[in-house]
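Form 7-S
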Amino acid sequence: MNTLAVPDIRLRPYQSDDVDRLFEAARESVIHMSPWMPWCHAEYSRGEAEVWVEGNCGKAGTDEGHIFVIEGADGRFLGGCGLNRVDTMHRYANLGYWLRRTALRQGIATAAVRLLRDYAFARTILDRLEIIVAVQNTASQRVAERVGAVREGKLREALLLHGQRHDAVLYSLLRSDPR
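Output:
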């Protein structure tokens, strides 16, 4: 699997030496990410990072998930993104993304989602990508809107976050959409 790149960032497959970088980025980001991504919690451990990295090495470019590191042009670990819940019969997948705290508000998530969208429509059979965001997570909603995703509606109690049901907003990107 090749690296996907634009001038400021690149998406690349996870590598076994990403454990410490993932751990550091997640620990830095607990406060802003934990409300929306329960995996990123105050007790997040290096062991959890190791399990994630080991489980996702080699998945980029496969129907197992298309999971990528978001990396700065300088090689700094900025976050992650990927396609999951891939349904090859109906040709759609969920698109997810996250950034470490010090990479926020720089257009990085938007650039990463555009790269992942273009990759998905150029190199997979997928025709539809869905972005599901908690109603209260306005920053992720702005990313979806900036990449041209269409807001389809509200999904009642679609997400279970920290034991509580939350409404979500469903966005979609279609292969046939103008880019």
